[in-house]
Amino acid sequence: MTLSSVTDGIDQVQFEHVRVLVLEDVPTGQTTLVDTAFEENGEELVETLEAEYGDIDRVILTHGDHGHHGGLAHVVDAFDPKLVMPADESKLYDHLEEADLDVEPDVAYEDGDLLEGNIRVVQVPGHTEATSALLLEDREILISGDTLDGADRGGMPEGYLLPPPALFNDDHEAAELNLYNLLEYDFEAVLVFHGSHVFENPKQKLDDFLVEREWNEWDPRTDDE
């Protein structure tokens, strides 16, 4: 496990297979944790958070994969944070029930909602039912959740973006098609949970990728209907 700064006010805690992000002073005077890694990472995650930040005021979960919510019980026990979770992500609620974790969201968000701290929710169904990205609108930074990976996760060059591998998607076609939802917003950086972050022209690179897909009939901009 390593802790490092991603950019001003945003840190990452990196585990073997996934990372989590810590937003300092978002909203003002509070510390927000985005996702909680796997259950087996939970104890070490809490120790790191306590040592570096003292307290966690809010947890935002992006979707229902174990690697993004598995450590939640540890974080809840340690900090009793405000919980912000997607309203329509049945996979997440099923997993929490299976784990006998009796929690309810303080905020159950939907696509387009604006969370405290000027964070816009952009949902991209396909990887899971309600996979969500989080746009820090005042900084034009997009936190991808699992809507996008760094291309180097799949052996491609760093600095580019790809959807998650088909193996991990509920509906791979939808996971790609719905990436057009992201292009409705402005962002200058994309922070991912797998692979390398992208700080140079991420929106244009995503647009180029989608245009060049073999199934151009998916492209809403070429739909004659």
UniProtKB/TrEMBL annotation:
Pfam families: Lactamase_B. Residues 17-197 form the Metallo-beta-lactamase domain. It comes from the Archaea. This is Beta-lactamase. It comes from Natronolimnohabitans innermongolicus JCM 12255.
